[in-house]
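Quick question: what would this complex look like in 3D?
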Amino acid sequence: MDLAGLSVGWYLALSVVLFAIGGVGLLVRRNPLVMFMCVELMLNAVNVAFVALGAGLNDVGGQVAVFFVLVVAATEVVIGLALVVAINRRRSGATADDVSLLKG
Amino acid sequence: MLEAAWLICAFPLAGFAVLLALGRRLGEPRAGWVATLAMAGSFVCSLAVFASLMGRDPAERRFVVTLFEWVPAGDFSVDAGLLVDPLSVTMALFVTGVGALIHLYAVGYMHGDGDFSKFFVYLNLFAFSMLVLVLGDSLALTFLGWEGVGVCSYLLISFWFTDEANATAGKKAFITNRVGDWGFMLAMFWAFGALGSVRYLDLFGQADSLSSTTATAIVILLFLGAAGKSAQLPLYIWLPDAMAGPTPVSALIHAATMVTAGVYLMVRVNPLIAVADAWAPDVIAWVGVATALFAAGAAMAQNDIKKVLAYSTISQLGYMMLAVGTGAYVAAIFHMVTHAFFKALLFLGSGSVIHALDGDQDMRRYGALRAAMPVTAVTFIVGWLAIAGVPPLAGFWSKDEILAYAWDASPALWVVGIVTAVLTAFYMSRLVFMTFYGEARYGTEVHPHEPSRLMTAPLVALAAAAVVAGGLNLPFTKDLHFLGAWLEPSLFANEAHLSLGAGAQWLLALVSMAGAAIGIAGAVAVYLQHRLPASRVEWPAAARAFYVDETWTRFVGGPGRRAFEGVAAFDANVVDGAVDGVGRSVRAGGTLLRRVQTGFVRSYALLTAAGAVALLVWFLVRTSF
Amino acid sequence: MAEAVFAVAAVLMLAGAVGVVASRNPVHAALFLVQTLVGVAVLFVLNDAHFLAAVQVVVYAGAIVILFLFVIMLLGVDKAEELSIEPIFGQRPLAAVVGAALVAVLGTVVVTGADVLTGLRRAGGDRALDGDATDIERMGRVLFSEFAFAVEITAALLTVAVVGAVILTRRASRSDGSATADTAAS
């Protein structure tokens, strides 16, 4: 396989930026669904890094890790969306800031 | 059988538990029978343990029965165990034996009382505590029993608590004993600090490694405790007031058993006394003999029959302390046993008299009861002769032995002792003459009568014991020192040995007999033949017990009260202030910190992200430098 | 050629990501998310991870985003969100600072550590990427030999997730039972 001079560093750099955008999105958005989407962004950023590093090391392990991340992401979305549905049933249109029972 | 020594304690405890749960339902007289049976069972167990100890070699007559781990705290642990040795078994025998007889008597005495079953609940609890005190294998366990008997004493003195005076007497006994208990506790802590253990066998094994100063301090502090419990000067003041309780209580607790606990404790720790400075036993001896003389003087002028016996008890306890102080441990225990018999007998007899005269305790309204209550009179006279020191009754032998050792230690002690003996003979004769002889002074509406068999049977048994108990330790030849030989394993060869020849002992005995005779003759002259008016011998000061009580009241009520109010203020402001301050500062800190917990998921996420960044920075910095 | 594909995909992905974060309507955010996910799939292809690329499109861009859209429609929360206000004081500046710090720190790691992999290429065995086998075959061999236990565990995880989702979203249907009692009963 020829990487044609495209070093792993570029992929990692892209991954870093994507991860940071997802993280900032998680911090500033209040809609729980969008927050979940931002989490997906962060997971995908990590996936990109995994695959690129796996290719760089000539190891299929990176791809395996991505496979498991996909599975966990799927479960996370299922449970997370179920929670959103359950909360919205009690309080329609609730944002993440409305659920603050942990307040000291 | 030795392993089953716990049964001795278990019987009264079981009786207590049964009566506590079912006492009211059992009612009179079955509750009394349950309690008496528990004591009898305990007595039988004591006999069995005694027999199996006898079957052993004298050197092996010391046995610890470990029951369970009582206080486990790190390296420090107190096992609850029973120390079965000749001394503790002797105590257990007479505590359970005399106790059983008094329980039997109480079944009759308490007849018709509204709280009949409650009385026996307390009595059995008392017996259990006393046996724990006696059989405990450590100072801590003895202290547990010590406090237990204190509580029972309080409960029983104020048994008829609806009368204010009785309740006050109970409180007085309890609080006065706290002073002594304070000494006991300090001694226990000190012993633990010095030797790392409060078990008797550990203490005795390492007693030689103690400095004499430490040993002296421990002994003196223990003696403070003993002086409280055994009613020595100046802590005796609770005992005369304790007569407010029912008469069986006075007989059991305040004559035969509990008040001897202090003497028992001092005998028990004889290896420590042996290490202590020489002045420590001297203090014990002089306090003892001073108490004996003082109380005998006070007993001369009392008109309440139970008060006479109370002061008499204090006086006899003084004799026992004198014996302890002179190293005559065998004599102390000997006198304790004989005293338990005849003093219990005298108290029960006085109870019969009070019973017969509808609760009147004033001897000035007694007289000529001999005809109306012959059994009581005869047994009482036996007790009188025993305590007065008339041979061959028990009191003569034990008191004479103490006086012989006192002479050996210091003739001055002996002189005070013999004067006390004369006074004892006098005031006991006075009591008997005023009660059973002379003309009847009670009102015509009173019809004295012999109490029921239940109450006379214990009197007869105790009278028999008071006659023959002297045989336990006869002075004539070494072979007759049964008690001395038996107790030897508990005394570690620390007891004093008489250096007197046989002739000197005979002489001392003759003097002591003459003293008894003088005392009795004096009383005959004053109270039977009326050659002297009674007011000439009954000092007003003696009637008030030489104003010791009043002095205490003035001291505690005046400067004492102010001092303790100061302590209370210190506690409220400084100690409580510090404790509250800790709490307040924690709350203030919490109020500040709770602002961090906003409850917003996004704030938590922000903090988490910041933490992740900080960690990454830390890794970067660490790897690049 | 590869550089060009990478560049286009990277631009699309970043644009999509910014779109997710910045769009006021959640439906738009979901669509932007699809754009980014497809970009990721392109990068997978570029790295010869064809199987993962397919899974990425089917599972992520297909199933998961559809699930998001379902929930949005179900709850009727497809209203535009007011983005100009921020209830938590200081949240946005701090988020920006943290994000920038993240980029700076991780970027430093990437820049300084870019050459670390050089000369570390491993070869041989089932795990090497440059063999004759297709990438599906490679992953299959590794997943069902070396990672067999992990695969079993994911099966259990998925089952638990499904059961959990059912319990969480069940309505308290019976009149006598409360929601919690229902949960306990199931």
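Answer marked as accepted. DSSP finds 24 helices and two strands in chain B.
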